[in-house]
UniProtKB/TrEMBL annotation:
<feature type="domain" description="Solute-binding protein family 5">
    <location>
        <begin position="91"/>
        <end position="448"/>
    </location>
</feature>
<comment type="similarity">
    <text>Belongs to the bacterial solute-binding protein 5 family.</text>
</comment>
<protein>
    <submittedName>
        <fullName>ABC transporter substrate-binding protein</fullName>
    </submittedName>
</protein>
<dbReference type="InterPro" id="IPR000914">
    <property type="entry name" value="SBP_5_dom"/>
</dbReference>
<keyword id="KW-0813">Transport</keyword>
<feature type="signal peptide">
    <location>
        <begin position="1"/>
        <end position="24"/>
    </location>
</feature>
<dbReference type="Pfam" id="PF00496">
    <property type="entry name" value="SBP_bac_5"/>
</dbReference>
<dbReference type="InterPro" id="IPR030678">
    <property type="entry name" value="Peptide/Ni-bd"/>
</dbReference>
<dbReference type="InterPro" id="IPR039424">
    <property type="entry name" value="SBP_5"/>
</dbReference>
<keyword id="KW-0732">Signal</keyword>
Amino acid sequence: MKRPGAGRLSALLVVPAVLSLALAACSPPGAGTAAQGGDGGDGPFEVTLLANADPPDFDPHTPGADEKANVVMNVFDTLTVLSPDLQETLPSLATEWAAIDDTTWEFTLRDDVDFSNGEHFDAEAVKFSVERIMDPDAEVARIGYSFPTLESAEVIDETTVRIHTNVPDPIFPERAYALDIVPPEYTSSVSESEFAMNPIGTGAYTLADFVPGQQIVLEANPNYWGEKPEVDRLIIKPVPEASTRTAELETGGADIIKNAPVGQIPELEAADGVHVEALAGRRIAYIGMNLLPGGEEALQDKRVRQALNYAVDVQLILDTVMEGYGDRTATVFRPDFTGFDPDLKPYPHDPEKAKELLAEAGYGDGLSLSIQFSEEIFASAGEVINALAAQLAEVGVDATIEVLDHPSYRSVVIDGQEANEVAPLFAWQWGALEPSADSLINGTLETGGVSAYYSNPELDDLTQQARQEMDITKREDLYKQIQALLKEEAPFIFLYQIPDVYGISDRVQFSPRLDQYVIAKDLKRAE
């Protein structure tokens, strides 16, 4: 992540000397944060987290908003987990795993786990969960984009399950971090909507209370199979206004706030009993283009798409709107992805080149496009889009801005291809969990992806090859080819890796993770 002071406007930026710029890769859970005060340590330990909004539901198998993840990751367990930097695959409900053949992974399961309703966890629960994710008749969209190779699950015995893939999948154990396990008996006995609002898992916490617009209360699961967590209750409150979240933290009404605007970092750093952690996040921001039949005709011309990328000065936006935070990306690849190509550079800001390409494409007299977004799609979205639109105007592209409320906007973009209600340009972001671009490409670019408005047989073919390539060197080469293709075809206006900024009470030990989850069992009292 760029540090404040980078870029052309660095002299205008204020850099708090004590700001902690900790990469999650260097920060194991429970270590590294400032710790002052404490609450005595005798009574129940409650931690209050402020989020942007309520989650739409708590079903771990439906597409997840950020707001849902902090409930799901505390209530449910997965077969494997990833380390805070997402680079290491660790045991969870599965104690070990091995490839049986090119398309079969065998997982050995814990035998001492019950769901919070008393139902026993076993291989049948894994099989049920796999089949639920893959159910083609499901009433709502599932997270199938996270498992593009998943074929079936086979119960060998109570503690052994085999996952069959339709092609070789070298990273399936990493993908299993998103495979939340649900209880078969309970899940089958209730409706989809009832399960979504009354989740049951094997996790360290249970959902104790949910009052929409006010709070979500998670309580420690007394029958949890793992180590007893130190936090007794995690209270999650929706507070849309960033300034209100900051005020709540400063006055002791909250312990952790997420997505703190970078402009409020100096204020947080100056407050008593509060510290800040900022890190390069897992989410990549971009401006999508509706390139499906029926979309804006001009965008079908690659020269126009490239022109939009030349027209936008992303670094200037980062330096000004984002105050130096956020990393420019050449495409949608993060540096930690397999096969990331550091030699592939972002489009330079070149308005004259943009005008030249627009003229070649027949739009020398100008072009009108609309751009959709929601304020919550990423931090400072409104300011970013306004700055971007102003830069497009400088090359003759009149961008009309349309703001939607976040639930409506998600509904338009997610699986909205058939309705085709998305604007020619739309702000979006994606945060792959595993250190691979596969789910990102599958979800946003591969033909038929959940938020894909693009179809390119060459990209689809390369993605399929990379997905099943067992040789790491060959896989890396395929991903480099994909990056070069993406830059050349420019299906997005490529933006940046979104910075994660947390404000944290000194009474809590918390080290942010690259996946952005606040996992309550990892939180500790400050000493």
